[in-house]
Amino acid sequence: MPEAASYRKVDLHTHSIRSDGRFSPTELVDLAVEQQVTLFALTDHDTIDGLAEARQRADHHGLDFINGVELSTQWQGIPLHMVALNFAMDNVALRNIVEQNQAIRLDRARRIADLLVKQGLPDLFDEAVALAGESQLGRPHFAHLLVVKGLVKDTNKAFDRYLGNKKLGQLRDVWPELEDVLTALSGQGMTLVLAHPKRYPLTVTKLKRLLGDFKKWGGTGLEVASGNERPDHVRLLERLSQEFELEASVGSDYHGPFGPWMQVGKFTQIHESEVDLVWRSWV
Length: 283
Ligand code: AMP
Ligand code: MN
Ligand code: MN
Ligand code: MN
Fold this sequence. Notes:
Pol/histidinol_Pase-like; 7 strands; Pol/His_phosphatase_N; binds manganese (II) ion; PHP_domain; alpha/beta; PHP domain-containing protein; 7-stranded mixed β-sheet; TIM Barrel
């Protein structure tokens, strides 16, 4: 008999237009259903605004839907993302962090615009705010403007030349400390996952130190596959999830049809029987 989880197609990390994704929550849920996903979370950056719409559409399709959000934090000066899953919409601690991060985003955008001006570029702040509209303003909006104005060839170049963490070195320490975020959110029944752990500038030794802190401060999960993750990285993360007793989460980190590989529900295969899955306790 196959395990209960093995015939599910799970995606617990996706973005809509409410942050830096291409599609509306409704369109994204339709896409998830089209891709035969059966357990789905929307995890926009620092906002829960899209969740009600996504849940309504998921209910319409009979798709199991999990509330989610990707929170911006930092640890030892390194920006880190964590995905909170399966919280109540009226959770006050979560709402406070989201609100705080939204204020930081606006302030940070002003500072990003100023840094770009110093490098001889036009002041893009007003246009970035207008482009984001109701969505969470972020670096992808600046990247888009740099591309459409012909100032860089493509989004990658925009990050390489102007918007990457190294390039924005002067903008360190903008996000709340991981410790504070985890402490505020732990013990309230939600799942707290460290997102895409191999995307940070960390050696394995330092990653292990991070995971020790993450666990100690109340983190409960580790994203062992995030989109087009290298299989050997998935293997390493699976082992680390066992070692640190963090449940394994998975997601596409889908933002839109920006590459041939990207799709809702699509990520490097994991070894489900060798890890504790975050969704085991939900379904
Ligand atoms: P922010 O939330 O404003 O810090 O922007 C981070 C987002 O920018 C990430 O969630 C990605 O969606 C996007 N991003 C980061 N690096 C790159 C890159 N090199 N090329 C394209 N998009 C990127
Ligand atoms: Mn993003
Ligand atoms: Mn992320
Ligand atoms: Mn993401």
